[in-house]
Specification:
There is one protein chain. The chain is built from 9 helices and no strands. The protein has one domain (7-197). It has helices spanning 7-17, 21-40, 47-56, 72-76, 83-90, 106-125, 138-145, 156-166, 170-197. The chain is mainly α.
């Protein structure tokens, strides 16, 4: 799998269209999460591809929310991003937008499954005393998962559909995503502090 773009170029491209700290943090989170999953699932040689897909997956969301996953190819192609990476970015909108590209590769299914879930996990983490995922357990996330009013913007159906696509139990998906978020929390906090102070 080829990216057509390196990590520095991908970040410059993403920040060209995204300025909101929430969106920057979400992109960095999915980059780290996808990097962890690539190794967890035995795709070490594709780790950079998985990570850059995570970084760029919401490139069109801030400026073009009504065209999410539709506008993305127009923003990515001129930068030389590979067609397989563009496909991976767009298919995470399957069933949520008018995009009809179903996630097929394991990486695409994990992106689809973990995207909304990272938002829910982070929402649970920040109301805890530690404000961290480092001491967060599956049961705490499951409790909030069953409370629709909590982090209502995080689609429970999409998370469940993602687990089903993967053939994983929901608890396993939550457990792995927490571990993935733990792996990158420190780096994300460092990056966000640097962005804030820039």
């Amino acid at each position: 799998m080829t990216t057509g773009i390196d990590r520095q170029q991908a970040w410059q491209l993403f920040t060209q269209y995204n300025k909101d700290p929430f969106h920057l943090q979400h992109a960095l989170t999915l980059e780290g999460v996808m990097s962890w999953f690539a190794k967890d699932q035995g795709f070490n040689n594709e780790e950079e591809f998985w990570a850059i897909v995570g970084l760029l997956h919401d490139i069109d969301f801030e400026q073009f929310p009504s065209q999410h996953c539709i506008k993305a190819p127009e923003l990515l192609r001129p930068a030389g991003v590979s067609e397989e990476l563009i496909r991976a970015v767009c298919c995470h909108g399957y069933g949520l937008t008018t995009v009809e590209i179903k996630p097929e590769h394991l990486m695409e299914k994990i992106l689809f499954a973990s995207d909304e879930l990272t938002g829910l996990i982070w929402a649970v983490a920040i109301i805890r005393p530690s404000k961290s995922v480092m001491d967060l357990e599956v049961k705490s996330v499951k409790k909030k998962f069953k409370t629709p009013a909590f982090a209502a913007g995080c689609s429970r159906k999409t998370i469940e559909d993602g687990a089903a696509l993967l053939g994983w139990e929901l608890d396993l998906l939550i457990e792995k995503t927490i571990l993935a978020m733990r792996s990158c929390e420190h780096d994300i906090n460092t990056n966000m502090a640097a962005i804030k102070n820039a």
